[in-house]
Design brief:
Blueprint (H helix, E strand, L loop, with lengths): L3 E4 L5 H4 L3 E4 L22 E7 L4 E2 L3 E8 L5 E7 L2 E7 L13 E6 L3 E4 L4 E2 L4 E2 L4 E9 L6 E11 L19
Parallel strand pairs: 1-13, 4-11
Antiparallel strand pairs: 2-9, 3-12, 5-13, 6-9, 6-12, 7-8, 7-10, 7-11
């Protein structure tokens, strides 16, 4: 079997929209960007959980052999001390497993956060360059487990092509809540 090579692309709000949202600050001083519509969760037995993590750095190229998802809760990552990180997402195939053929792999600057919609297959927190920390918000509890992981055929994440910028300015994208 051939290993899938995925060049990392610059953050792309439109391409990522079906998987969640890219969290960017507003462009104008005094404005607010709201992302509350992305913070839905499955059942009323769940409660918000907020934590800060510390992540060892990885290097490119990076071999990925598993993905995770949370079927009932959105998950928010806001970089606190991160140079660059990887956002790799995949939709589910007809059996519910991750579909690497439809993967989206973005190289994120530490100035942007990300929200994964419930049920989106994604790579766990993966930073580049140096140790990093994220503030993470999601929901936990209820009768059903909300942590799933799945092995996938190896995908190699590689540096973006040299003609593509890695750090792009994004307009605000959240609706008011």
């Amino acid at each position: 079997m051939t290993t899938l090579r995925l060049p990392l692309i610059a953050p792309d709000r439109a391409a990522f929209a079906r998987f969640g949202a890219i969290v960017a600050p507003p462009q104008r001083i005094g404005d607010r960007a709201f992302f509350s519509e992305h913070l839905r969760h499955h059942n009323s037995d769940c409660a918000p959980v907020f934590h800060v993590n510390r992540v060892a750095p990885s290097a490119l190229p990076l071999a990925v052999t598993s993905m995770e998802r949370h079927p009932f809760a959105a998950q928010v990552f806001v970089p606190l001390s991160v140079s660059r990180y990887i956002a790799l997402v995949m939709p589910s195939d007809s059996s519910g497993a991750p579909d690497p053929a439809q993967a989206l792999a973005m190289l994120m600057p530490g100035s942007l956060g990300i929200i994964f919609n419930p049920g989106v297959w994604h790579l766990g927190a993966t930073v580049l360059d140096e140790v990093g920390s994220f503030a993470v918000l999601m929901w936990r509890g209820g009768a059903e487990s909300d942590d799933e992981s799945c092995a996938i055929p190896r995908c190699d994440l590689v540096e973006p092509s040299s003609h593509q910028p890695c750090d792009v300015a994004l307009a605000t994208g959240g609706a008011e809540a």
